[in-house]
From TrEMBL:
SUPFAM superfamilies: Bet v1-like (SSF55961). This is SRPBCC family protein. It comes from Amycolatopsis melonis. The lineage of its organism: Bacteria, Bacillati, Actinomycetota, Actinomycetes, Pseudonocardiales. InterPro entries: Polyketide_cyclase/dehydratase (IPR019587), START-like_dom_sf (IPR023393).
């Protein structure tokens, strides 16, 4: 796989399994994420597992949009990842959280790989209001990881 388009890492004073539980639950992830605001399971799914899908609700200011995510990795305490497509089925991004034990807790790395075709970037920028998605996602990842750290450490 190519290098991520945007990535960030943070040390969290909580076990990898605890932090994994937060990011692998789309409802809990919405509580800490910057643009992602909620979900609805689709296709009979009701829990995070490889192949499960959820419709994500996203927001940035007054702008709102929806995506479809398919979970590709669900290894508790190690890795959680999902591929995101637009409502029209076009590829948007891959998101992944990797966990490794460290100190009294773990290190979490959040990464994103851009998947949109070049022509689709202007369309999605109009919908989301973000013209420099790489820069925005780097900032979003930093904010999300900081909130994830607070949530995971508060649960101890």
């Amino acid at each position: 796989m190519n290098a991520p388009t945007a990535t960030g890492r943070i040390e969290i004073d909580a076990a990898p399994e605890v932090v994994y539980a937060l990011v692998s639950d789309p409802g809990s992830l919405a509580d800490v994420a910057e643009e992602y605001a909620g979900h609805e399971w689709v296709g009979g799914a009701s829990a995070p597992a490889v192949g499960a899908q959820f419709r994500g609700r996203n927001r940035r200011g007054l702008r709102r949009w929806s995506t479809l995510s398919t979970i590709t990795d669900a290894d508790p305490g190690r890795c959680f990842g999902f591929e995101v497509t637009s409502v029209a089925g076009l590829p948007v991004a891959r998101w992944q959280y990797d966990f490794e034990p460290g100190g009294d807790g773990c290190v979490v790395v959040e990464s994103m790989w851009e998947r949109r075709p070049a022509w689709f970037k202007a369309v999605t920028a109009t919908v989301t209001g973000v013209w420099d998605r790489d820069e925005a996602n780097a900032a979003n990842i930093a904010a999300t990881l900081a909130r994830l750290k607070r949530a995971a450490e508060a649960s101890r």
